[in-house]
Design brief:
The N and C termini lie far apart (121 Å). β1 and β2 form a beta hairpin. The chain contains 40 helices and four strands. It is 61% helix and 2% strand. 33% of the residues are buried. With 677 residues, it is mostly helical. α9 packs parallel to α12. Strands 1-2 form a two-stranded antiparallel ribbon. It has a two-stranded antiparallel ribbon with strand order 3-4. Pfam families: CPL. RNA-binding nucleolar protein required for pre-rRNA processing. Involved in production of 18S rRNA and assembly of small ribosomal subunit. Keywords: Repeat, RNA-binding. GO terms for molecular function: mRNA binding.
Length: 677
């Protein structure tokens, strides 16, 4: 047993010493008895491997070399060469084989040039131009040979980076016919991105058509899938996108293109409307292709999300196809599919539609995938729509407040989350939607897609949701209000510093429920101080503008004093209940500077105080204004004094935007009318 064991150990040592066979003639590393590595040629390896094979399988004797012998059985001391000389010889042989390869000298030169060019800050512009010219003289006419070498392709990418438009087009044309192959290359795929990032239409129209007919192959390729999706998402025209997407509907769409001059559509519903007989085959092909990617966990592609949306839009609710698709999405254990879909336009719409069509149990399971992701989703261009849909569709408002509010609002003491939400164009909708609804002030033209999705799910929820929408909204507002009011009370200056922040404060104070006194007092305190105060000349930086000098600040105070929103239909202010009584909180803060307010940009705030029915110091205010009537008259008739930055000489012959606007402070004029009445 001992002999057999030692023989096996020796054979194992022999195998480790000689390494594995390699048929392409590359050099390999073999460990000597001392643990060092030697580079050996293939011929030596084959000879020693054959010898070891005989010993190991026929004699069974130990073949371990003596300590002072090298792995190939030779002893450097006996042969008259040292270990260092043997290493040098092997290194020389390796270099000779490397030099024997095609374009060896050219690749070596391009790598040297690339080493200089990549250090942009260390190379003057003139020298860089010379290096680029030299690089182009090497690669011109041989670009195809360079781009498939992992080291040489970097030099070509650098050439594209610093090339002129004409030189880039030259490279693009020289590579024509190989882009599908380059997309599958681990390194060459980046060259496609370098060519397309310049947004050259001619280069784009050279590259993208080469992907036609190869979508199924590329989208399933580990390397090619990402470059194909990047091209589809960020570079392709509407027509090119349609051509690529149509290949998801069947092989015939990959083989045959639409005649030139005809409109190309990627919408499956339009294709099936023209040819209803293709529905069965197209839907099956699309589902199989998409499901293959889902099973392989390759779910981050925009093209996949577009295809899934087209599939879902052509399903009939209640059918087996519909149920199978719903289960496919829900069965994604990791939730990667749902998470990835939320961050694309088509994917977000699809998730909203799935929530709308699902049962209460389905909705809970779908939203479970977004745990710890809601805060990120709230600020995304597309994912925030999923949160809005959840507000409108989940009947369990307690679940909504626990899962969504706790993430997007943060902890009670973390006011920075709410300050971010108030000022972010996307995130603000996830809070103010419950207060303002589908108003144009909250959803500008850039968010028109949100309104379309909301209208779509509102129609569907009439059949799938039980709770009254207004009851659901009020419950969510009640759950959210305490934390929002606390944030306003703790960070009033940060919130009123911006237009979005003032709109946020106004909406919350008008529509929130609970004790608002602390929040109202905090907002009133931001109006303190001299509106005309300036920083000392030796100050490190200028003072921030006083809130009374900003349009958004004056509008916020005016609305809070009136105690409600103006309703265009009735022509009156709809008071909130209970009343805010903000006028009595604001006046003590600004009364020492009331004349500056009445003659400045926020004069309408003072006018709102006079018109407020619940203002207890109206007589005192009228008396102060009567005493300063001269200042009011001057402000009402004369143009305001320009600011320092506006005193610089402007080009002659150009009138300002407000050249034809009436001069004088309009708020001061109305105050005078009130006093004279």
């Amino acid at each position: 047993m001992a002999t057999k064991s030692s023989s096996a150990a020796a054979a194992g040592g022999k195998r480790k010493a000689f390494g594995k066979h390699n048929e392409d003639g590359r050099t390999k590393a073999a460990k000597t008895a001392s643990g060092k590595k030697h580079i050996k040629s293939e011929s030596e390896d084959n000879e020693s491997s054959d010898e070891g094979s005989d010993v190991e399988f026929h004699t069974g004797e130990s073949t371990t070399s003596p300590p002072n012998e090298s792995a190939n059985g030779s002893n450097p001391a006996k042969s008259g060469t040292s270990s260092r000389e043997a290493h040098a010889k092997q290194k020389q042989l390796a270099q000779e084989r490397k030099n024997a390869k095609p374009l060896a000298d050219e690749v070596h030169r391009t790598k040297k040039l690339w080493e200089k060019l990549r250090r942009k800050s260390h190379v003057p512009k003139e020298e860089r131009q010379q290096l680029v010219e030299e690089l182009f003289t090497i690669i011109t006419g041989r670009v195809k040979d360079f781009v498939l070498k992992h080291d040489a392709v970097r030099a070509v990418q650098t050439a594209v980076k610093y090339a002129t438009p004409a030189q880039r087009k030259q490279i693009a044309k020289e590579l024509q016919g190989t882009y599908a192959q380059l997309a599958e290359s681990r390194y060459a795929k980046f060259l496609i991105g370098k060519l397309l990032v310049q947004n050259d239409k001619e280069i784009r129209d050279i590259i993208i058509p080469e992907f036609y007919g190869k979508v199924r192959k590329l989208i399933n390729h580990a390397e090619g899938s990402w470059i194909l999706d990047d091209v589809y998402r960020g570079v392709a025209t509407k027509e090119q996108k349609a051509n690529l997407l149509r290949e998801w509907y069947g092989p015939e769409f990959a083989l045959f293109r639409q005649p030139k001059g005809t409109e190309v559509t990627g919408e499956l519903s339009k294709i099936l409307a023209d040819e209803p007989s293709k529905r069965t085959t197209a839907m099956k092909y699309l589902f199989d292709m998409a499901n293959g990617l889902i099973q392989k966990k390759m779910t981050g592609f925009t093209m996949l999300h577009d295809a899934l949306l087209q599939y879902f839009l052509n399903l009939n609710p209640g059918t087996e196809e519909f149920k199978e698709f719903f289960e496919t999405v829900k069965e994604d254990e990791t939730g990667d599919l749902l998470k990835n879909m939320a961050f694309t336009k088509s994917g977000a719409r699809l998730v909203c539609l799935l929530l709308a069509h699902g049962t209460a149990k389905d909705r809970k399971q779908l939203l479970k995938a977004y745990k710890d992701t809601y805060q990120l989703m709230s600020g995304d261009n597309h994912a925030h729509a999923v949160i809005l849909a959840a507000y409108d569709l989940l009947d369990d408002t307690v679940l909504t407040s626990k899962t969504i509010f706790s993430e997007i609002l943060g902890k009670n003491e973390e006011n920075e989350h709410i300050v971010f939400i108030a000022n972010d164009l996307n995130a603000r909708t996830t809070v103010l939607y419950l207060f303002e609804g589908m108003s144009k002030a909250l959803f500008p033209a850039s968010h028109a897609t949100d309104l379309e999705i909301l209208k779509e799910i509102h129609e569907i929820r009439t059949n799938t949701s039980k709770k009254d929408p207004e009851v659901r909204r009020k419950e969510l507002v009640a759950a959210m209000s305490p934390q929002l009011l606390a944030a306003i009370a703790n960070s009033p200056a940060d919130l009123v510093a911006t237009s979005f922040g003032c709109q946020f404060v106004t909406d919350v104070l008008l529509s929130a429920t609970g004790d608002k006194k602390a929040a109202l007092e905090a907002i009133a305190s931001t109006a303190g101080g001299d509106p005309n105060a300036e920083a000392p000349e030796d100050a490190y930086q200028a003072l921030p503008p006083h809130i009374s000098t900003t349009i958004h600040g004056g509008r916020m105070f005016k609305t809070l004093i009136s105690g409600g929103r103006f309703d265009k239909a009735t022509g009156s202010v709809q008071k909130c209940d209970p009343p805010l009584n903000f006028a009595d909180l604001l006046y003590p803060v600004i009364k020492d500077y009331i004349v500056q307010w009445a003659t400045g940009p926020s004069s309408f705030t003072v006018l709102a105080l006079l018109e407020a029915s619940d203002f207890s110091s109206k007589k005192e205010l009228i008396k102060t204004l009567e005493a300063n009537k001269k200042a009011l008259t001057k402000a009402a008739t004369e143009a305001p004094a320009p600011k320092k930055e506006e005193t610089e000489e402007k080009p002659k012959g150009k009138k300002g935007k407000n050249a034809s606007a009436p001069k004088g402070n309009q708020g001061a004029k109305l105050l005078l009318e009130k006093l004279d009445a």
